[in-house]
């Protein structure tokens, strides 16, 4: 399944998820809030939030922050996922206002939080705003040796698994030699089946990497023109204006304005959408969301169209093409996009957190089958093989590999989008790859060519379970 509500690579999918919910800091031994009405109220708020006790939290909100009561249960689910927050620095403090830097306990994500209260005896909280920020230079994360990284990573994964923040597989390699490989949690909670390094996890939008490589193979072989409108290849596309304006390059870089595939129409026809053409039949008459090339907006439908174009140009189904031209040359034997109603050996069950806080299978949210936009399944070992094949030019020549993976469009922070790959600078290190996420699934592949590392993380829990782990690793990789 493709990303739903998470519009970019999971290296910063965690940020989007973080700020969709409630965030508060916590005091620690090194820093504290000032003894002011605003400081004391903020400290009290974060203290009760970090207990994870819903009743105590609601009781506090009723008296001190009544407008927050209606989302208290959501806040506590978020507390369970994050483990709470640490206060790192108070930037501004008055009698009625606090501005502070906070960090999520279970990840490296920083944010700037503003809290305001009303003057008076009760000092009720009236405002709280939180904004994601890049990690400040004075809180830079130290690079570790391989041995130190393995020790720290094993401790983190054991803690996250115990706290139900992670379930999945992790593989770190350097110059094609394994540095760390381990699986955690359960692939099937009812049967108590453990995850292994061979467990197949749904990878969401990570399928876009395979679609992009396939498209560039056809460009390399002279069968597609990046600058040509896709209507040159899909001559029967329903909306002629869209087909004549949007280029192959714009589809690859999410600059085409072609929109998404999720929403009421998808929910209504979810199990009827069995082929890529079925999606075109449903969405093909839509107008453009904006003038192609004028802005960047994540488009699952754009990559769906690329799959249809691959089928049209090659005369093969999208699935047969990627098996023959991506999976086979890379040696990926446990990656595919078979329908969900077909038995697939070793495919994990995805678990999403319900409104009541219970973990439930994501079965009723899944499409009939994965597509060129996402939704297949893979293993961390197969993703490592894909990264190796890409870097050794088994899939594309050097020129087109560089074009594929070099960021062209700024998408926020230190991230740029290329063609089905996202390029990032993480703690000073250049990496490229892609993530995927939807209820009950999350994955990330990061290829860091400078020091020669590849990091693959897959999880059968809600985002950002895998993204957090991936970021934790890349932030601490040895730079040399």
Entry summary:
The protein has 480 residues and is α+β, with helices and mostly antiparallel strands. 34% of the residues lie in helices and 22% in strands. It has helices spanning 10-20, 37-51, 54-64, 72-82, 146-162, 207-220, 240-245, 248-252, 264-269, 276-283, 300-314, 318-330, 380-391, 398-405, 465-476; strands spanning 85-93, 97-104, 110-117, 125-133, 168-174, 177-184, 186-188, 193-194, 201-204, 351-353, 359-361, 376-378, 409-412, 415-417, 422-426, 429-438, 441-448, 453-459.
Report the count of strand segments: 18
Question: Outline, from the CA principal axes?
Answer: globular
* Quaternary class: single chain
From the N-terminal CA to the C-terminal CA, the straight-line distance is: 36 Å
User: Low-confidence parts, pLDDT < 50 over ≥5 residues?
Assistant: 1-30
Task: Record the strand order, biggest sheet.
Answer: 6-5-18-17-16-15-14-13
Characteristic terms for this protein:
480 residues; alpha+beta; Nuclear Transport Factor 2, Chain: A; Beta-lactamase; four-stranded antiparallel sheet; 15 helices; 22% strand; disordered N terminus
List the helices and strands and how they pair.
Blueprint: H1 10-20, H2 37-51, H3 54-64, H4 72-82, E1 85-93, E2 97-104, E3 110-117, E4 125-133, H5 146-162, E5 168-174, E6 177-184, E7 186-188, E8 193-194, E9 201-204, H6 207-220, H7 240-245, H8 248-252, H9 264-269, H10 276-283, H11 300-314, H12 318-330, E10 351-353, E11 359-361, E12 376-378, H13 380-391, H14 398-405, E13 409-412, E14 415-417, E15 422-426, E16 429-438, E17 441-448, E18 453-459, H15 465-476
Antiparallel strand pairs: 1-2, 2-3, 3-4, 5-6, 5-18, 7-8, 9-12, 10-11, 13-14, 14-15, 15-16, 16-17, 17-18
Helix pairs in contact: 1-15, 2-3, 6-11, 6-12, 10-11, 12-13
């Amino acid at each position: 399944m493709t990303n739903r509500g998470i519009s970019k690579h999971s290296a910063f999918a965690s940020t989007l998820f973080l700020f969709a919910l409630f965030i508060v800091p916590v005091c620690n031994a090194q820093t504290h809030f000032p003894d002011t009405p605003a400081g004391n109220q903020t400290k009290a708020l974060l203290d009760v939030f970090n207990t994870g006790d819903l009743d105590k939290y609601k009781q506090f909100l009723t008296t001190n922050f009544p407008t927050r009561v209606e989302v208290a249960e959501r806040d506590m689910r978020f507390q369970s996922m994050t483990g709470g927050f640490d206060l790192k620095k108070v930037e501004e403090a008055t009698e009625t206002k606090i501005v502070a830097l906070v960090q999520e306990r279970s990840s490296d994500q920083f944010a700037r939080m503003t809290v305001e209260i009303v003057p008076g005896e009760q000092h009720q909280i009236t405002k709280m705003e939180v904004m994601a920020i890049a990690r400040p230079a004075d809180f830079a994360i130290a690079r570790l040796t391989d041995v130190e990284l393995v020790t720290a990573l094993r401790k983190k994964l054991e803690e996250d698994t115990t706290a139900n923040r992670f379930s999945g597989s992790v593989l770190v390699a350097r110059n094609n030699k394994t540095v760390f490989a381990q699986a955690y949690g359960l692939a099937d909670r009812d049967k108590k089946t453990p995850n292994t390094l061979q467990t197949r996890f749904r990878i969401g939008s990570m399928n876009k990497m395979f679609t992009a490589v396939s498209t560039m193979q056809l460009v390399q072989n002279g069968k597609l023109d990046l600058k040509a409108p896709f209507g040159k290849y899909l001559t029967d596309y329903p909306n002629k204006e869209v087909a004549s304006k949007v280029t192959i390059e714009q589809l690859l870089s999410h600059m085409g304005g072609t929109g998404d595939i999720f929403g009421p129409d998808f929910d209504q026809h979810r199990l009827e959408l069995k082929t890529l053409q079925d999606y075109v039949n449903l969405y093909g008459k839509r107008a453009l969301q904006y003038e192609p090339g004028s802005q960047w907006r994540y488009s699952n439908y754009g990559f769906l169209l690329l799959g249809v174009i691959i089928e049209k140009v090659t005369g093969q189904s999208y699935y047969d093409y990627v098996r023959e031209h991506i999976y086979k040359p890379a040696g990926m034997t446990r990656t595919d996009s078979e329908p969900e109603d077909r038995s697939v050996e070793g495919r994990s069950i995805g678990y999403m957190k319900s409104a009541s806080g219970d973990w439930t299978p994501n079965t009723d949210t899944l499409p009939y089958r994965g597509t060129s936009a996402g939704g297949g399944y893979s293993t961390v070992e197969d993703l490592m093989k894909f990264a190796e094949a890409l870097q050794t030019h088994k899939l594309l020549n050097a020129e087109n590999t560089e074009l594929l993976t070099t960021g062209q469009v700024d998408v926020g922070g230190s991230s740029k989008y290329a063609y089905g790959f996202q390029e990032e600078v993480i703690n000073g290190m250049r990496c490229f790859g892609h993530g995927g996420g939807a209820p009950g699934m999350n994955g990330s592949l990061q290829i860091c060519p400078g020091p020669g590392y590849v990091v693959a993380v897959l999880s059968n829990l809600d985002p950002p379970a895998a993204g957090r782990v991936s970021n934790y690793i890349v932030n601490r990789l040895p730079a040399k």
